[in-house]
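Reposting from the mailing list since nobody answered there.

I have sequence plus structure tokens for a pair of proteins and want to know whether others read the tokens the same way I do. The first protein:
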Amino acid sequence: MSKPTLLIVEDDDLQYEIYEDTLADYSLVRVKSGSEALKKIPTCAPQALILDHVLDKGELGLDFLPEFKELLPHVPIIVVSGALEVRQQMAALQGPRRAHYCLPKPVDVRELKRTIATALKECGDTEIVRQFEALERSRRLDAQELLSRSTDRLSRQNRILELVGKSKERPNISALAREFNVARRTIIRDLQELIRRGQLKPEVYPEWEEEREND
């Protein structure tokens, strides 16, 4: 069974050595800035992200939270920093573009290991299931319709993955739209989500990078 992958966004070499010694049970991928992390995510598909605040080239980790959450909507983000005031820690843990956990430096390695284990157990797919269950309990009139749409989307994306993954040619957006009886923009959104999750390589649909830059 493969080790869970942790993406470490940390520019301090000594701090990263602590992670290497402490987190030997995981597969670690390191970058030194938020910009590097954004480039790495499509080919890395981490199960958790550990984020420092003060990074290489003067970048600030919390500034990248919205983009990380866009690319990794259900992946737990653990902020580990000694440069945050209490109000900044609270802000990092609030709102739709939030981190899941915030730990101070110098980090307690036992607490870090416990936090990562909890994050991998409680977040990700488990979090999605809890959201569906909560939606059902809410007795919203449109709950069944929303669940059906989500199931249909996942089923369609799995089928697209089979078709595109086996082909050496660029996907025909119009043909896929006709096959699944959906709009072209729906197929494009499916391809983008598959790329963000690391299930398809970016070169399958390179236009997605241009569209992100124009958003």
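The second protein, same order (residues first, tokens after):
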Amino acid sequence: MARAMGATIAFRGGGGEPGRAEIDSRDVNGGELFFGLAGERDDGGAFAANAIEAGAWGVVVTPDRAGRLGAEDGPAWVFGAVDPLAALQRLAGFWRRQLEATVIGITGSVGKTSVKDMTRAMLPGRVHASEQNLNTEIGLPLTVLAAPVDTEYLVLEMAMRGPGQIAELAAIAEPDVGVITNVGPVHVELLGSVEAVAAAKAELIEGLGAGGTVVAPAEAGPLEPHLASLPNVVRYGDGGDVTVLQSEVDEAGTTATVLTPDGSQEFSFPFFEAHNLANAQASIAAGLAAGATVRQLAERAGDISFSSLRGERIDLGSRGLVINDCYNANPISMRAALEHLAGLDGRRIAVLGTMAELGPDQDRFHTEIGDLARELGIDTVVGVGPVAGGYRPDHWVADTTEAAQVVEPLLGPDAKVLVKGSRSAGLEDVSERLAGQKPGAPATSGRDTVV
């Protein structure tokens, strides 16, 4: 382990091996390898003694801190590493190479979490996947290190905020299959253009192992130049290698006949949205690229469930239905969510927060989404926060408390309320208030759906 991490052993602890990696000493309850990472406000290494006291198998801290830990702190291994985060990543890369697993890396401007959740559900055998938002330079290695030794498929979501970050994650994961769901005007504020976003996402292609397969949309837009001349590309969507021949939505969900290189197959999905059917095609393509058969994937499609805050359906009884989609928002996902809302019966109410990181064109993007809501016939639009004024909403409020107060009188048996915004907007507070919960409590929800 020390060699894999590029670390030295400052103190030898007991036998065995750690059960998992941990970065928060408060979550140590016995048997973990604690990494003392430096944060914006605190240095996690300062809590290494607390982790040992709580039962950590070992700790990884900077050499100076390692030198101050010893037998008096407890029977734990102490490793000294100049950069504990790099040590975490190196150990994850080592463990990935020990696993006899097929690794699927998933990124994209929209839908990567949905595709990850669907792929995890449909793959046969022993599957380990990213939980919630463990998709960063910290979360991804934690996910890899949590994979059991008998893992057959490792499904990893990869987030990106700047150039080089997908490449960093791919170097750890060494994926066999790389899925890029799409490229849109997300992170333009940081990268400058949609073309630059495409180049950053395409780092996943460069990080594939020899003989790796790329899964991409049939209409790839600005990603297209990065796909030219690649030997192994599976396209999904209209005109692609994996495409829906026909579909039908009823009270149970969506039934679709899907054409694939492995033949056509009927799938029964537990969701209702058209955009999730597109995500499902990406997941089917990923599963086929990973070696599963289309029949195996179809057999498990009914087990699909989604991560929280992504289109959770909260039944308010006689007061209506809330679609709690507060995890993220950008022009692509906002359009899809509004189109789904417009297709529902009853009075349609959209509570919309800021779409973040859109760069100098953010005002235009917000105005276009507001115009779209009116074109689709959304009955009431509530904008939350200063930037949300760009929607030109029917009601413009300062915060989530006011938003809930505006929406409450509009509720009724036929009310359908979409609550959506970027994570920084914190609109889950609106959903919780409408559901009669204390803000911050877990929402009671039915079937999840996700953008």
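Reply #1 (J.P.):
I read it the same way you do. The first strand starts at residue 8 and ends at 11.
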